[in-house]
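User: Some background: our group keeps a shared notebook of sequences we're curious about, and every so often someone picks one and asks for a predicted structure to add to the entry. Today it's my turn. The entry only has the sequence so far, pasted here. Could you supply the structure so I can complete it?
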Amino acid sequence: MGKYEDFDWVDLPKHAQEAAKVLGYDQAKWDGDIFTAASNKSFDELNAKEKEAVKALGYDQTTWDDDSDSSSSSSSEEE
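Assistant: Of course. Here's the predicted structure to add to the notebook entry:
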């Protein structure tokens, strides 16, 4: 679980909003728990900028991969 997972978009610090944008989130997707293409990637599949973004949101490789495994079995807006 990420550091900001239970936050609404408006309550995210600016740096967390910017990190979320790198991963394809906007307010509607974040608040609606809609998965982006990046959220379905394993940590190793992320590019360098995406890895920095997930770290800024409080994830490490293990926690990201645990969450991405659960999101890949859920519906996704982007493939």
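Suggested note for the entry: The radius of gyration is 11 Å. Residues 73-79 have pLDDT under 50 and may be disordered.
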